Input
Amino acid sequence: MDTATAAQARPGIDTTLVRRLVDAQFPQWAGLPLTLLEPAGSDHVIHRLGEELTVRLPRHAGATGQAGKEFRWLPRLAPHLPLAVPFPVAVGEPGFGYPWPWAVSRWLEGEVATVEALADSSGAAVELARFLTALRRVAPEDPPAGDLGEDLAGRPLADRDRATRAAIAQVDGVFDAAAMTGLWDAALNAPGWDGPPVWFHGDFHTGNLLTVDGRLGAVIDFGGLGIGDPACDLVIAFTLMTTGSRAAFRDALGVDDAMWTRGRGWALTTGLNAYTSYAAVSPRVAAQTTRQITAALAG
Output
């Protein structure tokens, strides 16, 4: 990979660049202070802009569709949802060497949800089930949907088969490879979604929930938003909940055995992907994904 290609694959993003982009493209906000928000996410660099806005710049090509997707769809979905979601106000264009679209959204108050605060809360589990139920009830075919676009097409678990089996082999000895293989085979062989295509969040885990005064307040990061089998959103049951709250969540959402098994498969494959990518360099990710994989195996 040459230097130019490498720079575009992971462009340098600092406050000076963000300031230049905002001032050039949205002069109405040029006087507002910029503050880098940390810890930084793996997909975006985020700055707070004044008191009421945030600026999100994708770190890599895989996250570049999120700005346009959220700008188009979240204003339509938000009125139907019982928790707050991001409200996009503008999409910026490439500039000053930065190669991709970027987003300005309204600031959402809250802190990232934690297992310590919410894991045992059946009330929070039921709230999350109600959120997913409401999301699924928004008919994808209603105007102004039109052409939903390929980026909203749900991908089957089978698309992740090779990578998941490779990850299982890689972590053999850390986790029970036979148990993981058994769960993965069961998830792939479980009956598929037989209902109409519905909306799913697509990245529904603890890090994408905000709390205010210890209560759920918002769901963020809709880069994985799509339409199809909603089993992927069951990952939240294995990243956040304990046995009791998980049962309350499943009951409130009305999940049958086949969908629960597919959801366990999603929790396993996403947990393995994060573990093999980041656990060696991030003790926080190692602990979170170990919990997720262990919970998925337990059921």
